[in-house]
Amino acid sequence: TDFDIVKLIKNVFDLLEMKASKKHIVLTFDKEYASQVLVYGDEERLQQVLTNLIVNAIKYGKKDGTIEVSVEHLIKNKVIVRVTDNGEGIEKEHIPRLFERFYRVDKSGSRKEGGSGLGLAIVKHIVEAHNEKIYVESQFGIGSEFSFTLEKAK
Ligand code: ATP
Ligand code: MG
Q1: What is the pLDDT of residue 76?
Q2: What residues contact residue 129 under an 8 Å CB cut-off, 6+ apart?
Q3: How far is C-alpha 50 from the chain's CA centre?
Q4: What is the DSSP code string of 114-153?
Q5: Rounded to two decimals, what is the model's pTM?
Q6: Of the candidates 101, 88, 79, 85, which has an alpha carbon nearest to the alpha carbon of residue 20?
Q7: Would you say the ipTM is above 0.90?
Q8: Measured on CA atoms in the order 115, 60, 66, 140, is the torsion positive or negative?
Q9: 130 C-alpha to ligand 1 centroid (Å)
Q10: To test the ligand 1 pocket, which listed residue (82, 120, 125, 134) has its Cβ within 8 A of the most ligand atoms?
Q11: Would you tell me which of 6, 40, 128, 145 could form a disulfide with 84, CB atoms 3.0–4.6 Å apart?
């Protein structure tokens, strides 16, 4: 079934605004004033994907930071949704294992955030169940970008 990804992103922002504001993090969306972008997929499960990615961006983001979500049209009837933060970033050595269940980057003591290490495993599982792809790019100390593709409807 199809749904409006613009509307879904705005809903997730509404749900996470409080959490972000506690760290003085601003959530921005490049399509805030755009009309709808219809995509195929399971809206509830894709809400979980966006939520997990944005919660991570808040958790591992720095105080007074910014999280940017964007939706870009690709060729072949696809869109790519990106969640970009300017937080602590991830060292290269950890990138290949990030999507494993229970995998967490642990820098002995420096990490005060709790978590089970399941969020990204769930994200990958849902995206791949849609036959789509998930990507990560990160620079340690600078920030991270997680992105995933979806198929455009009509
Ligand atoms: P859970 O999501 O289950 O509560 P978690 O956040 O630790 O726990 P994942 O969401 O799977 O687990 O993320 C795995 C690890 O990847 C995190 O522990 C963190 O070290 C790293 N990570 C994930 N997202 C980011 C990000 N945006 N910036 C920096 N590190 C990140
Ligand atoms: Mg998480």
Answers
A1: 86
A2: 45
A3: 5
A4: ---S-HHHHHHHHHHHTT--EEEEEETTTEEEEEEEEEBP
A5: 0.96
A6: 85
A7: yes
A8: negative
A9: 22
A10: 120
A11: 145
pLDDT at 128 over 80: yes
Cβ–ligand 1 distance for 41 under 6 Å, the answer: no
Residue 18: left (phi > 0), alpha (psi -120 to 50), or beta?
alpha
Q: How many residues does the chain have?
A: 154
What does the pLDDT look like over 15-64, one tens digit per residue? 999 999 999 999 999 988 888 999 999 999 999 999 999 999 999 999 99
Q: Is 70 exceeded by the pLDDT of residue 112?
A: no
**Residues with Cβ < 8 Å from 79, sequence gap 6 or more?**
5, 37, 39, 71, 72, 73, 149, 150, 152
Q: Which pLDDT tens digit goes with each residue over 58-95?
A: 999 999 999 999 999 998 899 999 999 999 999 999 99
Closest to 85 in 3D by CA, of 119, 64, 61, 52 = 61
C-alpha span between 151 and 22 (Å, rounded): 34
